[in-house]
Amino acid sequence: MLQIVPRMDDPDQIVLVAQGRIAGAALNLLANEVACHKQSHRPLVLDLDGVRFIDRDGTRLLRCWMADGLILRGGSLFLRLLLHKRGVQTD
Questions:
Q1: Contact at 8 Å (CB) between 74 and 48?
Q2: Residues whose CB is less than 8 angstroms from the CB of residue 16 and which lie 6 or more positions away in sequence, other chains included
Q3: Closest C-alpha among 48, 51, 37, 66 to residue 2
Q4: Is 7 helix (H, G, I), strand (E, B) or coil?
């Protein structure tokens, strides 16, 4: 299960706080949320502190969004190592 909560306390960027797993059917939820907020033309940050796992499809999706300017932030050591192994760097 994945929960995404927009944190709008910064007028210069939009931070989406994700909790759970970025995998399977949850990718559609994340894709819809990102698409909705990308229209604001402010930098979009995905906070990974509450994410426990990202599958390979999720990694590919994040990589594509990062090419469009998405910023990944945080995440556990496990998650950062997993993403690093798959060629994705976080802040």
A1: yes
A2: 4, 5, 6, 7, 33, 34, 37, 44, 45, 46, 47
A3: 51
A4: strand
What token pair was written down for 55?
A: 């599958």
Token code pair at residue 30? 């994340």
36-90 pLDDT per residue, tens: 988 888 899 999 999 999 999 999 999 999 999 999 999 999 999 999 999 998 8
Q: Has residue 91 got a pLDDT over 80?
A: no
Q: Classify 89 as helix, strand or coil.
A: coil
Q: How many residues belong to the chain? A: 91
Give the torsion sign (CA, 38, 42, 43, 44): negative
Q: Would strands 14-22 and 44-54 be described as parallel, antiparallel, or unpaired?
A: parallel
State the amino acid at position 86 in one-letter form: R
Q: Can you read off the two tokens belonging to residue 71?
A: 């910023």
- Residue identified by tokens 């910064």 is 10
Report the run of H or E that residue 83 belongs to, with start and end.
Answer: helix 77-85
